[in-house]
Amino acid sequence: MSTTALCVIVAGEPDEREATMANSGQSRSVTQIEADLRASRARLANTIDQLAFRAQPKEIVRREKASARQKFMEATHTPSGELRVERIAAVLAAVSAVFIAAGLLRRHSG
Questions:
Q1: pTM
Q2: What are the distances in angstroms from CA 100 to CA 73, 93, 94, 105?
Q3: pLDDT tens across 64-94, in order?
Q4: 60 membership: H or E segment, kind and range
């Protein structure tokens, strides 16, 4: 496996210098290869840190809450920010109907 291929696997897309060197057939010195490996390791460590942060339960809950808040705002407000009264009224009517039906069932059952 060539060094360029190793950098591609570890770090994702090769940078311009790596692509130019791979295409021109130039050989790199040990120092350049070691520097590239250190840079690739640093990028990989940063990526792992970001993934570990995103996988934390508190971060997942925060993202889900933000997503739910955004969906609620989109459902209850127009793009200009005004309340969608007809949607809110429909939801309140449905909730009221459920509570009334539950109360009637409870009343008849005992």
A1: 0.48
A2: 28, 10, 10, 9
A3: 999 999 999 998 999 998 999 998 999 999 9
A4: helix 57-76
